[in-house]
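Re: the 238-residue chain
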Amino acid sequence: GIFNREVWNRRQMINRYRPVVDDAEAGCDATGLDMAEMENVPNWVGLVKKALDKNRRLPYARYFYLATVREDGKPANRTVVFRGFLSDSKTSLKFITDTRSEKMDQVKHNEWVEACWYFPETREQFRILGVVRAVLASETDERLQKHRIDQWKSISDNARSTFTCPHPGMPRDVDNNEKDRPANGGETLDAEHPVDNFALMIIDPDRVDYLCLRGDPQFRAIHERNQDGSWDKSEVNA
């Protein structure tokens, strides 16, 4: 399959109870988040949330680049939309995709991915390394399937309609595109029930490389997760 269920479940259980690593980034204000919200959440999550808030007037600030590895070992990259943190994990990032996309074959071959996320307003960059989990229509974990369904309900009608488009990456055939649509592509989409080719993707981070370009000198820190789920931070040269 795409993932090792036992390893994934163990990582998610650790995520729920990981202790806080308290730090303040010089020249890049890491304070000001509600302390109740920050309870049991590593500092880099707070930095991401604060960057999202300070860049909220820029719609594209919710987009990040996602790098995967093709089966031939060559890199692949694309832009995806951040859909929030997994509510019962607090550190796992969500995005959505069509199961017919090339990235699905790539993560089946290699589950390791890296997100690169830049916030122009605050001049901050996050490189987030981790393993990705695909939650599919066939998912038997009721908790994860509920997350998938809830995500489908939360997206716009326009976003839902993209899952009825012809097969991504296939040659464009203006006259015969209908043949490549999903079985329910011609139907009115049900906002309560996801189409079969809708996948919720979850990135479970192991390492976060944070860079703040403001100030002189610039500030960079590496946040790494330990086996017990806690996070360590080390400051490095930018």
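The chain is about 25% helix and 30% strand.
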